[in-house]
């Protein structure tokens, strides 16, 4: 019997993280936040002052980095033994992650690292290509989206709550730019899997989204 996976893909700020974590908790399953892998790589490359336009150097960096995810109260991520959790949510990190994520060499290196998260009793995998590339055989797939202005508002609120300085207009523009880059790239673009359940959360509460996704996961 193959290990069950629920994939939740969609653009940034659609609520994937909150929904995936809540659903993973309710099901007692593992959780993969694949965006944080790309974010960690961006941090590692920037810290080493690599040229982010150099796909080969960034792919080598991906091969060499030692990442560890530990879920205590919250997710704690260590890169080469150093806790980088507080650096992950920044908009600059997100933009750099989107840039390095466009390289096929990088995605090839990170593919197996993501597949390794598939462990019993099951996995909730959150990202852009979980249902289309990494876990194509997942029995339950969701494409979770919301309008760009709504996602901008949510991201703004999230950053403010974390004490990170933010500007709503700038965030909405960055979200649109990132959507374009993530959707138009050649390798693993952000598109709904053919067999994904398309869910627009613009006018739904987070609890309503969680409820719909749970129904899908258990049927
Ligand atoms: O979900 P996030 O905002 O943490 O993701 C950061 C960037 O990483 C996003 O702009 C695109 C990239 N990404 C990706 O290409 N594939 C994934 N499965 C997850 C994230």
Would you give an account of this structure?
The structure is a single chain. Helix content is 49%, strand content 16%. It is of the alpha/beta class. It has one domain: Rossmann fold. The strands form 2 sheets. The protein has a 5-stranded parallel sheet. The protein has a 3-stranded antiparallel sheet with strand order 3-4-5, covered by helices on one side. Helix 3 packs parallel to helix 5 and helix 4 runs parallel beside helix 8. It is globular and about 45 Å long. The two termini are 17 Å apart. The mean pLDDT is 93. The structure holds 2'-deoxycytidine-5'-monophosphate. 2'-deoxycytidine-5'-monophosphate (DC) binds next to helix 2, helix 4 and helix 8.
Give a count of the beta strands, DSSP E runs of length 2 or more: 8
Total helix count? 9
Helix- and strand-based class?
A: alpha/beta
Instruction: Give the overall form.
Output: globular
Q: Which range does the strand content fall in?
A: 15-25%
Report the biggest beta sheet as strand number plus sense, adding barrel if it closes. Answer: 5 strands, parallel
Percent helix range: 40-55%
Overall mean pLDDT = 93
Under CATH, the topology can be stated as Rossmann fold
Bound molecules: 2'-deoxycytidine-5'-monophosphate
Number of domains: 1
- Give, in spatial order, the strands making up the sheet with the most strands: 2-6-1-7-8
| Radius of gyration, whole Å | 16 Å
- Name the CATH superfamily classification: P-loop containing nucleotide triphosphate hydrolases
What CATH architecture would you give?
3-Layer(aba) Sandwich
CATH class: Alpha Beta
